[in-house]
Design brief:
Layout: E1 2-6, E2 9-10, E3 27-30, E4 39-45, E5 54-60, H1 80-86, E6 115-126, E7 129-134, E8 137-138, H2 146-151, E9 176-177, E10 181-184, E11 189-196, E12 202-206, E13 211-218, E14 236-237, E15 239-242, E16 246-253, E17 258-264, H3 267-271, E18 275-280
Parallel strand pairs: 6-11, 8-9, 10-18
Antiparallel strand pairs: 1-2, 1-3, 4-5, 6-7, 11-16, 12-15, 12-17, 13-14, 13-16, 17-18
Length: about 325
Amino acid sequence: MKLVEMEGSHTVQNDYETLDVHVGQCFSVLVTANQEPKDYFVVASTRFTKREVIATGVIRYNNGKGAPSPKLPPPPVGWAWSVNQFRTFRWNLTASAARPNPQGSYKYGSINITRTIKLANTAHKVDGKLRYALNGVSYVEPTTPLKLAEYYNVAEKVFKYDNIPDDPPAEITKVTMEPIVLNMTHRNFVEIIFENRETAIQSYHLDGYSFFAVAIETGNWSPEKRKNYNLLDAVSRHTIQVYPKSWAAILLTFDNCGMWNIRSEVWDRRYLGQQLYASVVSPNKSLKDEYNMPDGALVCGVVENMPKPPPPCT
């Protein structure tokens, strides 16, 4: 399999016999039919799970002679192999034109980091029920949508900005439940560290953006780990896996205004609180950055009977 694209980005075209595709991820590959004419299996199997599930497809040559071998090769063992494969993924810098903004620039490694946010996932029971959390807070949906409350200037009645620390404590012994909203400064270049303190593999997605997946390593993150970042040709993508007792680092510019979801791609974890939102507001109140709410939009919650405010963006 020749890898040619990953989540919207052209990649250096390396050849692979096996690819680890984590939850929420998407790869495009080219397969060259240059083998002896017969039938061949394509195998997809689960990894990093207690129960293995296998599915097979068949590539069939015209006028092929012979069935595929009934003996399927085993998948690679352990997740260290998967970490090493991640490090082979590179952005193809000759396939697409760079854009002048940092989000699409090939020079992302020379941009100063203005904020570092570390997100540590944990699992706890709250009132006897399982909840998943980030930095000690498990997300719950408010009765008033976050963006609606922000638009009506009553955010303080619905949620608090930056209600989790950028650097979580070494030990998280309890979990609280509330909406989580990070107040992001428009066009700041931000470093986000996903720290997996559990024994289950994680996968995260960021709505509204692509980011540079610059590093995955075992152990705990520290500022000294930045020397191991790929600051030249990390793939621009929108999901990242985090291995057990490991961390993953991404870099991005928050230049797209709105209220954007950062979430676990493992759906039961997202449903039980392993997610948050990043609020990015246009400082110039310009329609070039963000549209106003449509006139016919439905409202609910604390703003249901409030007069509609004047459009913030012109």
